[in-house]
Amino acid sequence: MAQDPFSNQAPIKGVKKIIAIGSGKGGVGKSTVSSNLAMALAEKDYKVGLLDADIYGPSLPSIFGCFNQRPEVNKEDKIIPISRYGIKLMSMGFLVEEDQPVVWRGPMLFKAMDQFLRDVEWGELDYLLVDLPPGTGDIVLTLAQKAPIDQSIVVTTPQTLSLSEVKKAIMMFKQIGVPTKVIVQNMSGMMVNGERIDLFPTGPINNIKESYGIPNLVEVPFDPKIGMSAEAGIPYFKSLKENTPAKDTYKDLANLIG
């Protein structure tokens, strides 16, 4: 009898819930959504960790302005995550030089994911958000085999090409037994003088939501300050004191999660 590939799942000590944030393709703003959701949850007084699982192309160190920092190791040989704006962060970007490529095969990826989950001193967390690499590859399966994932968020943009990949991401999570509770449509129009302007031709996102039984759709409007804040190394949610349509949307997303 074949062994259950998820039989080795084990909870992470101190972590109450794990949320995977994925996308069918790259370039949809998944890391931006992950970082700003983390900030919105922290504003609600939740204890939040954020794991950058994109081994080949880590971006969270740049978004949080801490690319040159290196984590310390405690007496128990546990890696102490980098703390930024109250969020505990772990990324391959903290372990290699910025211009150093990671040229690894599958087994090394599996080992890295296991270390990020088990050998990091996460402490007590209400939520561990896992910012996955784009697509449906080894990292997602490895994560599901190592730890129980409570739910997933799938990120897309309005174009039909991007939406076609949403279906694959939803089915991927379904196959590994992880419910998708929210679709986030990023860059979903831009508000100009109170009027919404669509930046891209829009696809049938509501049809996909209904067809796959996804309970929630969150549309994050485009705001040029989102990209500017990432370049400055400050998450958008933290960079603004005032409320904006995009910031309010991240609060809505946090309310759906927490």
Would you give an account of this structure?
The protein has 258 residues and is of the alpha/beta class. The protein has a domain at 15-153 and 224-257: P-loop containing nucleotide triphosphate hydrolases (Rossmann fold), CATH 3.40.50.300. It has nine helices and ten strands. The strands form two sheets. It has an eight-stranded mixed β-sheet, sandwiched between helices. α1 crosses α9 (245-257) and α3 packs across α4 (138-146). The longest helix has 16 residues, at 160-175.
In short:
With 258 residues, the chain is an alpha/beta fold. The chain is 34% helix and 19% strand.
What's the layout of helices and strands?
Layout: E1 15-22, H1 30-43, E2 48-52, H2 60-63, E3 82-84, E4 87-91, H3 106-118, E5 125-131, H4 138-146, E6 151-156, H5 160-175, E7 180-185, E8 190-192, E9 195-197, H6 205-211, E10 216-219, H7 224-232, H8 236-239, H9 245-257
Parallel strand pairs: 1-5, 1-6, 2-4, 2-5, 6-7, 7-10
Antiparallel strand pairs: 3-4, 8-9
User: What is the structural class?
Assistant: alpha/beta
What pattern of helices and strands is seen along the backbone? EHEHEEHEHEHEEEHEHHH
- What's the helix count? 9
> For this structure, what is the CATH homologous superfamily of the domain at 15-153 and 224-257?
P-loop containing nucleotide triphosphate hydrolases
Radius of gyration: 18 Å
Q: How does CATH name the architecture of the domain at 15-153 and 224-257? A: 3-Layer(aba) Sandwich
